[in-house]
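Thread: Newbie trying to understand structure tokens

Hi all, I'm a second-year student working on a class project, and my supervisor (Dr. K.) asked me to get a predicted structure for one chain before our next meeting. I've only ever worked with sequences, so writing a 3D structure as a token string is new to me. If someone could post the tokens and maybe explain what I'm looking at, I'd be very grateful. Here's the chain:
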Amino acid sequence: MMKVLLLSCSTGEGHNHCARAVRQQLDRMGVETDFFDMLHLFGEPGPIGVEQLLNVISTKAPNLFGWMYRTGEKVSALGVTSPVYLMNTNYGRKLCDLINKNGYDAVVCSHLFPMETLTFIRKHWELKAHCYGILSDYTCIPFLAETELDAYFLPHERVKAECEQAGIPAERLIVTGMPVADSFRSEMTKAEARASLELPAEAKIYLIMTGGIGCGDAIGLCEKLLKFPDDEMLLCVLAGRNRELLDALDAARHEDPRVRPVPFTDRVSAYMRAADVLLSKAGGISSAEAAVVNVPLLHTMMIPGVETRNARFFCELGMSMMAENFDEAARFADRMVYDEKTAARVKECQRQHMPQDGAERIAAYVCGHSDRATTAEP
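---
Reply by user tm_fold:
Sure, no problem. This is what the structure looks like when written as tokens:
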């Protein structure tokens, strides 16, 4: 039986969703799989671990994250070894031993960090597994080109040219579409979703998503939306794992019952199906999931850098609207809810441009290429 290891990092819940969607399909094909968060694989990180540091920057100082992203692009363009690569060499020997000892035929990564570690391993030791990376954003991210894997799975044809320009060989770039879990492709209706979540059947539901770690000024966005005199409005705000944000939303709910805070949940797909409009930060995976669900999508509260690239990509293809500030967000959201033509136009573009079988394509490629021997340089 074929055996596949899937590696992610909890620097954003989307990376985990991505890996699990592929795992779901591999399991269906009878492949034995394991899934690990690499930052936690060899012991819990310390109090100032990489995961915590990046999450704090994303939630508290998103402009700093944008500066880091732009700096990363400049360093990546120079072609020098990045500090990201050096940081991820620390796990090399242990990860190599784990892969070889457990007899994995392939390793599939949904995050740059394990891709960097696998590259280091292949330069120094023998690795008895094929190595693959999934690009979970709609742009070629910094430092991807310094990794050396057997293949990279891309979310869209338009991203391929960027990756080639960055120096990744064209024959290793496989356009599959973004892997999306089954729950986002179900046939659940809006009415069924609302009933399952105990949401009012006739409300105009504005779903606000802040990502798994709870990024962005959701309180400010709610205040702007609530200025509309609409008694039918209900703001469902998914706060992720951000306890501070959840407490602030609870306080806002006492001021206005049209605000409904939602702690971290595994029912995101149901909330998307229940919504009349989704206002979300522009994570690559969550945006793809929204497009597969086919919900009117408005990108706002983007973290500068890769998320602004994702939002522009979706907006250019008509799959979302993009708001630069909360005034625009309120106007655009209201238009999507009450102008059927606007919502229908966005949904039609999603159907045209968003493939739904990314997980199947990735799983099929991994299984189809498992018979080729992979060896690393000594």
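A couple of things are worth pointing out once you decode it. DSSP finds 17 helices and twelve strands in the chain. The longest strand covers residues 3-8. Feel free to ask follow-ups in this thread.
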